[in-house]
Amino acid sequence: MIIINSKDRILDVALQLFIRNGYRGTSLNDIADQAGLTKGGVYHYFSSKDDLYYQAVKRFFDFSQPGWLDNTDVEIKELIWQGFQSIKDRKKWIKDLVGVDSNDAILHFYMFLYDATRRYPELQKDIDQHDEAKRKKLAKVFRQAQQEGKIREDVNPEVIAFELDALLQQLEYLSFVNPNIYQDSNMYQRLFDNYWLRLKK
Length: 201
Hints:
The protein is mainly α.
């Protein structure tokens, strides 16, 4: 039997409710009820709603590299394809995080990000640093692929790293809101094929 620490349980419940309903739309009573605790039980770990919100948000912003960049030792073409494929996993992760099994999940998710980074501007810096780390890792991989003669040498590794990161982030959003993306099972393959045509030697 797995025993989950009450504080961790509260943070998990609070994060989902804050993402789904917003700060104003979530009460400590809501969190306590869903966590199976009393409001006093929540106050045992957190001094206020603001304290709980901040800790839940910080928990969310403890970044790690996206899974498709965990192993960059694969062929460059396969790595890029993994990036396109990762959008499906990311979409499921967002739906699970929000607790909404519909494309509306992205609206809750982005509103949460907007609110959190406006309340705590330092978190926007965390996002920027996280994205920069991704792009540096990608640029290193692209540079190595150029040296090995696997992709064109007349493209700037930093620029194509930025471009790919931006493209995947935009496709993540479109996977929720654009029927051409979420209703066409072959769209990612076609987008990847077109992207690869521009890079291969």
